[in-house]
Amino acid sequence: MQDMVRVAVDAMGGDNAPDEIIKGVAEAVSLREDIKVFLVGKEELIQEKLRAYSYREGQIEIVNATEVIEMAEPPVVAIRKKKDSSIVVALKMVKEGKADAFVSAGSSGAVLAGGQLLVGRIKGVERPPLAPLIPTRKGVSLLIDCGANVDARSSHLVQFAKMGSIYMEHVVGVKKPRVAIVNIGAEEEKGNALVKETFPLLKECKDIHFIGSIEARDIPAGAADVIVCEAFVGNVILKLYEGMASVLVGEIKKGMMTSLRSKMGALLVKPALKETLKSFDASQYGGAPLLGLNGLVVKTHGSSKAQEVKNSIIQCVTFKEQQINDKIRENIIREEG
Amino acid sequence: MQDMVRVAVDAMGGDNAPDEIIKGVAEAVSLREDIKVFLVGKEELIQEKLRAYSYREGQIEIVNATEVIEMAEPPVVAIRKKKDSSIVVALKMVKEGKADAFVSAGSSGAVLAGGQLLVGRIKGVERPPLAPLIPTRKGVSLLIDCGANVDARSSHLVQFAKMGSIYMEHVVGVKKPRVAIVNIGAEEEKGNALVKETFPLLKECKDIHFIGSIEARDIPAGAADVIVCEAFVGNVILKLYEGMASVLVGEIKKGMMTSLRSKMGALLVKPALKETLKSFDASQYGGAPLLGLNGLVVKTHGSSKAQEVKNSIIQCVTFKEQQINDKIRENIIREEG
Known about the structure:
2 copies of one chain form a homodimer. With 337 residues, chain A is of the alpha/beta class. Chain A has 11 helices and 11 strands. In chain A, the strands form 2 sheets. A 6-stranded mixed sheet of chain A has the order 3-2-1-4-11-10, with helices on both faces. Chain A is globular. The model of chain A has no long low-confidence stretch (mean pLDDT 91). At the A-B interface, helix 8 and helix 9 of A face helix 8 and helix 9 of B.
């Protein structure tokens, strides 16, 4: 038990809960013996659904939580009022050291607010950023921050750059990750007040490989590994990514159905097309970690299916094995000392 | 001559100048007899290139300008120093009423700075926004502002919404255009300080059809006609649009070349695919107007070819015919009075 990675999973969160969540959990524990999952939510419901799967004794444990935080609820209020919700119960397990990590496809707002309020930040971390991996032509890049921290300051962005570098290097396995700040031009004097203030600070940072500004145009091409921006801009990038991919793919499919000739062609290219689009599907890469907390909190898409849940749980293992939080702690303290 | 729309065109700006610019000009004047173009730039060079085209007497006139502002020059400095550059000479023609409009594929910064410094703003307009049309599943939307006005205030955004509505209704022909503000969630209480301050002001506006927040995800689907945001966010959206389209299309093409089967299919779907992608090609829609100036300034892509130049010139005709600046003037004055 000592070397197990203990992951609390929100059985009630997301569009496909609890079925896909439970399926993902079953798949994760069947892959690795060193994972222990706490399925947090309505006990009877989970018990019933879990009967469909077989798994090693002791790898899955149900933790009862009678309430559910809905997507539309104001996050901070919900966290304070619904003390017996799956999100609050699971986050408290992380806080108390009963779990190493928490994975949820539920309300982003509640997971972000709860992560900060209940689990708490690593000493020295000013704001915990939400950092999803986004697909690019070259693989993936870490987009940091896409969280609830709007109106950020330059010192926050510098910490995002450091935490993002550590994550990309040790969890994703990119050596000497290239860090860039989102800007509206490549020159140093360009940008808004925040970017102009942050740019020289990033340039001075010794423990990151800062390559300068990145224009949004170059993000999908994979021009940087760690893409630093404040949360509003990050959210726009993330959402536009999803929207563009879905509309373009839809239009291309529709276009192929316009003539008999193209319909025949569509049949032939379908498998190859599917493969290509899969590489641009964010769910391949698990969820987005909320970095800088005393424990790991991972937010997966609201529309997550079993595969994304499974990948998010596996991600927690790497995070613990690589002692990411110790590395963040060291890095932040070294900087402050 | 009285009813001619007089357009000064920067013969020296953009990656494909002067050849594609001159070609676009020749095409525009062959389409409509009521356009008079001043081709501004190095006289001898233009004269020589122009020989390849035939056009009605008096529809094209060369205006000599011996200097060229390069892409990399700091805009404000360049505008002040290069008094005989094509951009400065052409903008002064607009200022002095010798031309109604200016079209350039040259340095965005110089066109934006020059437009403000040399042509001047309509009385009451706080900041002139750059407003490109972006392709969506339903047609096009106006993204306002993508200009150089970073760190905008809420009053600027309200004016952007009004000017954008007028443009979409009278130039593009969208009745009662739906206006939305870019946000990180649909609820009114979401957003950064700027959005939270602007939202209620837009709600109060009687002369626009405000439909609330828009998440970046819904932009490509065409969920609003006028998309209001400050310039940094607008620039990110515009550039990511271009980047995503180019990378996704590239990956899809590459994917189709992976097997014999898919290669055969690719041959069959190619014409249909080309048609689909054309509808997502921004150059179809002419350039981006810089609104709120005493005259019209249109910035086209640096990579513009003849078609975009031609469309941008035609756009100037509609702009003048529809008396857009009078409408903006009335609207801004009514609001202030």
